[in-house]
Amino acid sequence: MTSIMQVAPSLDVGGLERVVSNLSIELIHRGWDVSVHSPGGEPFEGFLEDHDVPTQRIPAPLPRLDSQFAAARVLSRQIRRRRPAVIHAHNPAAAAAARLATWLARLPETPIVATYHGLPDGRLRRAAMILRAAATVTVGCGENASAEIVRAGVSADRVATVVNGIDPPSGDDACRIRCEFGVETAPLAVNVGRYAEQKNQQLLVRAFSSVVQTLPSAKLLIVGTGPAEPELRRLVHALGLGESVVITGRRDDAPAIIAAADVFVLPSLFEGLPLALLEAMSSGRAIVATRVRGVEGLVEPGVTGRLVPSGSADGLAEAVLHLLRDASERERLGRAAAEAVRSGFSVSAMTTAYESVYRAVLAGAPLSSATAGRGT
Hints:
Layout: E1 3-7, H1 15-29, E2 33-38, H2 44-50, E3 55-57, H3 65-82, E4 86-90, H4 92-104, E5 112-116, H5 124-134, E6 137-140, H6 143-151, E7 159-161, H7 174-180, E8 188-192, H8 201-214, E9 219-223, H9 229-238, E10 245-249, H10 254-260, E11 263-266, H11 275-282, E12 286-290, E13 306-308, H12 313-325, H13 327-344, H14 347-363
Parallel strand pairs: 1-2, 1-4, 2-3, 4-5, 5-6, 6-7, 8-9, 8-11, 9-10, 11-12, 12-13
């Protein structure tokens, strides 16, 4: 069996981590020898182990050089033992650590496929420099991600596109979720994502303070984990929203919470290709999102959701309020969103596309045949 080593910056809650997990499991089902190397984290470390995917711990490959060397020293020993045909690193820092590790392992010819999941504008140029030096091939997780990394300086003939994929929802747990949070009949908005600056949940909390002034029964669940959690909780308290906004913390049933929502809200500053948004669309939820890269092109305004200017609390509040009060509009947008995902995104198609990338890299073939957009 051909050996693939997946290198991830974490296995905590997040879209990148879900991609690594779903891809690894599907590759094993297809006969590849796959292992996942990361600092660990839940829920996905346990999820991988439950599916018999080998996992090994490494120090976190962060953007700092000392962090990358620390990760590389441990990873190099794992490379010497496994001698992978391909290393698949997720984001530039992991790619840098993987390349350093191949040198330390004295296997510098090992090809590295690096998936670029998106970064802020201020970090793009450095990311491109790292990817040029470390990656044999860079894969954008969507067409926008590929285009921006090419604009930042990665040669187009070394860039492929593989669109993130999700599995269809397994069922609707709406009653259980709504009963748990005491929102059986309340208009319910949900956000799922890391509590981090990129996800901009502070903007959503401020917007929701306007929503409840007009619709006092409305509720908001913000699901995730991350460094901004204390700040989010302070903001909810400062705005007197303790009865209206729940910061849930980490939940392993985030897809079920999404399915229980009337409206899914994504106020991010930027995205690669957000899996939580795809899950919401797949579940037939009405979408409100900021008009930012990684979201534009995925949400068609007025057809599969509503887009508002980035940073506009008033725009976000107006769009959320409108959809919470208009059930027929929610239903229309949700049906169109679900159809768009069914016809365009799946774990199977994502895995097939990555298999094409691996084979092209191993054969030294052109990447044009490995590039994949939406597929089923």
